[in-house]
Amino acid sequence: MRVLVIRHAQAVPHGCGVADAERALTSEGARRFRAAAQELVRLVPRPDALLTSPLLRARQTAALVAAAWGDIEPVPDAALASGSIDGMLAVIDLYPRGATVALVGHEPTVSALVAKLVGVKTGEAIAFEPGAAALIEITSVAGRSGRLVWLRSGA
Questions:
Q1: 57 vs 28: CA distance, rounded Å
Q2: For the residues 83-96, what does the mean pLDDT come to?
Q3: How far apart are CA 37 and CA 139, in angstroms?
């Protein structure tokens, strides 16, 4: 299985008078991630599933990468906004071994997920900037037996 983990692009900051769930991408964040999405689709063929946190900034990021792939609809999943690594792993584990699953989520959960999948201590060496992405090949979700194929810096 291949898992493409994406952190949402640059969003309006906390404390700007907007509820956290409704914080949108900035125009610059959307512009930069639209360009980054073109690079992502060259690196990873259209996945079997594109999952996204239901929070607005993640849904907007997922919509941008979905448009670049074409013919794929982002599927919101509350587990991607829960902060629970086990919840995210359970969602990934629903897909067959040969699948490619892309997911759009938030920090610090996305870096913790990648760390867990590749056997690195959380926070030790992996941090996701807005718009960053990583591709992991895993042989077993339960066994956390993953290999980091690449990590792309933020957009």
A1: 13
A2: 91
A3: 26
In CATH, what number is assigned to the domain containing residue 93? 3.40.50.1240
Query: Do residues 79 and 106 touch, judged by C-beta distance below 8 A?
Result: no
User: What is the domain extent for residue 110?
Assistant: 2-152
Best CA proximity match to 59, nearest among 74, 81, 49 = 74
Q: Are 49 and 73 in contact (CB under 8 A)?
A: no
Place of tokens 């892309």: 102
Could you identify the residue written with the tokens 């448009």?
67
CA distance 60 to 37: 12
Compute the Cα dihedral for 106, 107, 109, 115 and give only its sign: positive
Provide the pLDDT confidence category of residue 122 given band limits of 50, 70 and 90. low
Give the residue with greater pLDDT, 153 vs 8.
8
Composition of the chain by helix, strand, coil, percent to 5? 35, 20, 45
Q: If we measure between CA atoms, which residue out of 102, 123, 103, 104 comes closest to residue 112?
A: 123
Domain total of the chain: 1
